[in-house]
Specification:
Rossmann fold, binds adenosine-5'-diphosphate, binds magnesium ion
Length: 318
């Protein structure tokens, strides 16, 4: 072969190696050539199957923010699916009466299905309600039905009302690497149960104007629960969601959050993406709905960052 033959020295295209935190979902980006999408999908699956260090103990992560619509449910299901695709065993606990996480995972949760309500209020074993998630090996879900809407009030009169989820999780004997709890948009007894059951709080923050409003109240609640009910509780992760690189506001909000929480904010921000919002209507996460999309790649990367942090945290604790 002639030495001037250029193939070896030609730069390879950076397919899939995009900096997702900066990528914009400009109109029409979903129409990218099929070949590129396919290549990205293959790369996503390849990257996912590389595997990651597994935590020594189950990490129980509470995805909380009393604001609605900030990306709690979307982040819970996609991070959980991404971690499972990285080889971890993951349980999603749906603690929102709306059952959006159950829907997004394609898990049956019509009225009458044994659910997290029975676990909390009737002391049923968690094992009786957990269902495997179709399409993602190693991913499981404890669904929420509409019954859970009454639990906030019914719990008030029960013994150990704040620690019922914690008891159920500790009695669950299946080996798990992660438990992700999707909280409702309030700071009531359901969220308190989650904060008592977990050690890590994950706060999704939408990169919009009122992003930090209400955060102080959430942090005070975390402090209260730590002081009185769960000394291990801490905010481990802040995830910037719905980042729109076309607006200066998003960049400003992101910078402000990073200034306030330099250690907690994950380097990867989740971009605003049509694919992410479409996936639940197919009973899927974006990780299976469109594995090559920027949304899936960014959740995969965020999950990797979270998993690698666990190693550091575990070492620091020892
Ligand atoms: P929460 O659980 O905090 O109420 P959701 O996860 O349900 O928030 O998200 C609120 C809405 O925003 C949903 O319709 C969801 O599909 C959409 N959404 C969430 N994240 C993104 C994103 N990165 N890009 C586009 N839409 C998103
Ligand atoms: Mg939700």
């Amino acid at each position: 072969m002639p030495s001037e033959y250029p193939t070896a020295s030609m730069p390879s295209p950076r397919v899939g190696a995009v900096d997702v935190s900066r990528e914009t979902e400009a109109p029409g980006i979903d129409d990218t050539p099929i070949a590129r999408a396919a290549k990205q999908a293959v790369e996503t699956m390849g990257r996912a199957s590389e595997g990651l260090p597994r935590p020594e103990r189950t990490r129980v992560m509470v995805v909380a923010n009393q604001k609605g619509g900030v990306g709690k449910t979307t982040s819970t299901v996609n991070l959980a699916a991404a971690l499972a695709m990285h080889g971890a065993r993951v349980l999603v606990v749906d603690l929102d009466p709306q059952g959006n996480a159950s829907t997004a995972l394609g898990v049956d949760h019509h009225a009458g299905v044994p659910s997290i309500y029975e676990v909390l209020v009737e002391s049923r074993d968690l094992a009786e309600v957990v269902q495997p998630v179709r399409d993602v090996e190693g991913l499981f879900c404890a669904p929420a039905t509409i019954d859970l809407a009454g639990a906030e009030i019914e719990l008030v009169s029960l013994v150990a009302r704040e620690s019922r989820l914690q008891r159920a999780l500790s009695a669950y004997e299946q080996p798990l690497d992660y438990i992700l709890i999707d909280c409702p948009p309030s700071l009531g007894l359901l969220t308190v149960n989650a904060l008592v059951a977990g050690a890590e709080v994950v706060i999704p923050i939408q990169c919009e104007y009122y992003a930090l409003e209400g955060l102080g109240q959430l942090l005070r609640n975390v402090d209260l629960v730590r002081a009185h009910l769960n000394p291990n509780l801490h905010v481990s992760t802040i995830l910037l969601t719905m980042y729109d690189a076309r607006t200066r506001l998003a960049a400003q909000v992101a910078q402000e959050v990073r200034d306030h929480f330099p250690d907690e904010v994950l380097p990867t921000a989740i971009p605003r993406s049509v694919r992410i919002s479409e996936a639940p209507s197919y009973g899927q996460t974006v990780m299976t709905y469109d594995p090559g999309s920027t949304g899936a790649l960014s959740y995969l990367e965020a999950a990797r960052e979270m998993a690698l942090r666990s190693v550091t945290t575990a070492k620091e604790e020892v």
